[in-house]
Amino acid sequence: MLFANNATIASGYQNNTLKTALLAATIVLITLRCLDAASADVTGEALVIDGDTLQVATERVRLHGIDAPETNQVCSSGAVTWPCGRMAADGLLAAIKSQPVRCVGNKRDRYGRLLAVCHAGPVDLNAAMVRDGWALAYRRYAKDYVPQEIEARAESRGMWRGSFDAPWNWRKGERTAAVRD
């Protein structure tokens, strides 16, 4: 009788150990899957969606650390308005120069887009958009491109040749205080 009870205890211990090991393995697999879903390295022909968004293969990519004017956003210079949102998209297309694009990122935004730094050949597209004045350094999320913004502003490149609403304010409908006039 004593032997049977010891066997039952040993069997119960083995079942608990097995259950614990299976639970731990499941947690590890779920964690790895979540990390893999966030990180990506995509390369291919890029479709320009707007001044800070690309489609590369099946991946929608938001350029990390920058914010470009929305497609239908306008800027002004004196009494003249111009479609700076469309011009920003054209600027991104020009920076790509029909080259394959490689984007590397490890986070996603609330829309599921990969937040990434993208290159067309040796050109850092994120930095180029800010340096050319077609996007602002998105300081709320990163300060990586502040030097390029300072340079673009000093040289009156892109949007900096006139007045504009910061894209984050424009999206909120706060179109009263122009960044520059």
Automatic annotation (TrEMBL):
PROSITE patterns: TNASE_3 (PS50830)
A Pfam family this chain is assigned to: SNase
Residue ranges annotated for the TNase-like domain, each copy included: 48-162
PANTHER family noted in UniProt: BLR1266 PROTEIN, EBNA2 BINDING PROTEIN P100
Protein name: TNase-like domain-containing protein
Species whose genome carries this gene: metagenome
Source taxonomy: unclassified sequences, metagenomes
